[in-house]
Amino acid sequence: MFKVTSLNSISVLLKIGIGLITSKVLAIFIGPSGMALTGNLRNFLTSTESIATLGFQNGIVKYIVEHKENEEGLKRIISTVFLSLLTVTLILSGVLFLFSSYWNDFIFGKVLEYASIFKILALVLPWYVVTIFLLAVINGLGKFKKVIYINVIGNCLGLVFSVFMVWKFTTFGALLSIIIPPSLLFFVAFYFINKEIRFIKTISFQFFDVEVLKKLSSYSLMALVSSFFGPLVFLAIRNNVIATLGIEQAGYWEAVTRISTYYLMFISTILSVYFLPKLAFATSVKATKNVFWSYYKGILPLFAIGLLVLYFMRFMLVKLLFTPSFLPVASLFLWQIVGDIFKAASLILGYQFFAKKLTLAFIVTEIFSLFLMYSFSHYFILLYGLEGIVMAHALTYFIYLTVLVIYFRKSLF
After folding, report:
1. In 3-state terms, what secondary structure has residue 70?
2. Are residues 385 and 314 both part of a single domain?
3. Is residue 236 part of a domain?
4. According to the model, what pLDDT value does residue 372 have?
5. Residue 327, pLDDT score
6. Which segments in the chain show pLDDT lower than 70?
7. What is the spatial distance between Cα 413 and Cα 411, in angstroms, rounded to a whole number?
8. 170 phi-psi bin (left φ>0, alpha ψ -120 to 50, beta other)
9. CA end-to-end span of the chain, whole Å?
10. Is the dihedral of CA 239, 50, 173, 256 positive or negative?
């Protein structure tokens, strides 16, 4: 456990480091307006990925774990999921390719012409989805180190590709660097999985089993709600900022969001690796309460102190990570950090939904929080300009945390 978590920590640090370098390159070559466009494409890609994978990743890992000693059961799961995902992905690729002009107008607006990006995405999407599937299978087989190695290789590959493409083709290259590197990782994942099982020989139509899909469907619902609707809401908010305040302002928000994503990785990693299993195995109210409060007393105060230091270093940080043209980003830090502290406080309660499979409660609270974020941001932008979005972020997570505290009050108090 210690070796895996240590290796995973190195992987996370590497990912953050590569992300920061990429942010600097983007800031220099494409500026705030280009960064806003890359944010839109990232949100769209996340939603597309959630549809193509049907939200099956966690379910795949669980059933592979249960059947890894049962050769026929393993073949049924792998064949059923692979054939299902490939069918859905090919249909989705066709829609992306045929309606590329529509997607361009929807994501980038009618003024910009990047329809070819969606045609390229249509061609690489099947490789990308199969890679995600292979990683889930490798994870389910208990080869955690190999999953981490593949992610490290993918991050390094993405950095080299991104820097070259942005340097050569600026904004168009930045968009390509979002969609192409994940698909190249297929060859790495395929190499690693063939060391464990004879993958090609495992796939067969005769092993296709509808019962496998029925079992997996219960796991996909929560994943689909958060990974599909969440990015779409943020895409809609960013498009509203572009229409109301201008594309550069949207780029400033994308910049502070990227910084937030990097430091929240530490919290999400600790939660998924250490606290989620503890919540899953906590069978009594007292045990659950101990897990919650060990997080609130040990992890959250350190995180809050770290963000406080970050706030006082905000001007230096913006210059270091981006360029002087991004200095307006510094004015967004206060409310972003306040919102992220509320978010970090609510995350462990949110993980309880997954640990105890509280599907309906999760969906209701998730849609409620997305509705609040969308509504508050539209209203606050009119009153406070760009700062209104980060104020909406803080208020949304304060209300979300309050709702979860009330819902889990018996486990907390």
Report:
1. coil
2. yes
3. no
4. 96
5. 92
6. 1-8, 58, 218-219, 273
7. 6
8. left
9. 31
10. positive
* 10, 36, 377 from 241: Cα distances, Å: 36, 10, 9
Q: pLDDT value at position 117?
A: 94
Report residue 243 as tokens: 């229409």
- Which residues have C-beta within 8 Å of that of residue 320, sequence separation ≥ 6? none
Helix and strand tally (H, E) in the chain? Answer: 20, 0
Judgement on whether residues 390 and 274 belong to the same structural domain of the protein: yes
Q: What is the largest CA-CA distance in the chain?
A: 62
Cα 279 vs. chain centroid, distance in angstroms? 22
Question: Would 231 be classed as within a structural domain?
Answer: no
Q: Is the dihedral of CA 44, 46, 49, 55 positive or negative?
A: negative
Identify whether residues 140 and 259 lie together within a single domain: no
For 226-380, list the strands marked E by DSSP. Answer: none
**Assigned domain for 153 exists:** yes
Instruction: Identify whether residues 197 and 293 lie together within a single domain.
Output: no
Assess whether 197 and 271 both reside in one domain.
no
The predicted pLDDT at position 281 comes to: 76
As a whole number of angstroms, the distance between CA 153 and CA 158 comes to 8
19 close to 262: Cβ distance less than 8 angstroms: yes
The reported pTM is 0.85
Dig out the tokens for 219 from the structure.
Answer: 């796991």
Give the H/E segment covering residue 266: helix 247-270
The number of distinct structural domains making up the chain is 2
pLDDT digits (tens, 9 = 90+) for 14-52: 888 888 888 888 888 888 888 899 999 999 998 898 888
291 and 168 co-located in one domain: no
Cβ pair 41, 177 in contact under 8 A? no
Q: Are residues 285 and 390 in the same domain?
A: yes
Same domain, 306 and 197: no
Domain span at residue 131 reads 2-210
185-213 pLDDT, tens digit per residue, is 888 888 888 887 777 878 888 888 888 78
DSSP 206: G
Q: What is the pLDDT of residue 57?
A: 73
Three-state DSSP class for residue 234 = helix
Residue 220 covered by a domain? no
Report the pLDDT value the prediction gives residue 148, as an integer from 0 to 100. Answer: 79
User: What pLDDT score does 6 carry?
Assistant: 62
